[in-house]
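User: structure tokens for this one?
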Amino acid sequence: MEINDIPALNAALNGVATLLLLIGFALIKTGNETAHRKVMTSALAVSVLFLIGYLYHKYLLGSAHTTIGAEGFIYWAYIIMLATHIILAMFIVPLVLRTFYLAIKGKYDLHKKWAKWTYPIWLYVSVTGVLVYFCLYQWWPSAATLSGKS
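Assistant:
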């Protein structure tokens, strides 16, 4: 695997996490707590793999960063999405860990209260993570991205 393959792998992991989050939500709404627990644990594991891949990719890039090749409305829509994605991504790790901790400890009332905030933020961060990938590498790559200098 080369450095340029990592963003696609990370996007795939984010996509899988998104699907698992949606499935986990549906399972708890239907009362299937056992399956919900397994699916949400899988979502956490996939998200941890994503985070490791993301940090590794940033480590390999050093101070370099990838820019979008779009202009005008698309550029500014991307910047707003990216900004909200980054801000919420900073909060999602402690939110997810706290929500999982409450479930593991059997504090289901508190778990449910935390999950009402954690779930939509986690889902948003996962979905926008995939969209950031597509914006940067598929739909509007910059000249640097096209030359392999992401």
